[in-house]
Amino acid sequence: MTDRFFVETAIYRVSLTAIYRVSLTAIYRVSLTAIYRVSLTAIYRVSLTAIYRVSLTAIYRVSLTAIYRVSLTNMQKDAGTGESI
Hints:
single chain, mainly alpha, 1 helix
């Protein structure tokens, strides 16, 4: 075997190693970025849904409580004056 064979083999191995490392790094970065984006999107959606539900529940309770109090007050006024509803 000649020196040229060993040089070509060495170049081939170095090239394959470099391509392998670059490919793995690229795949790793793309995977991490995709996981990061999906996670952020999921967290964002869950957070918005939770805020929306809590807000709606709070508005619903406050509204029902206000309606109940106004109705009760009106019924008490009507009962005190003897007027019909």
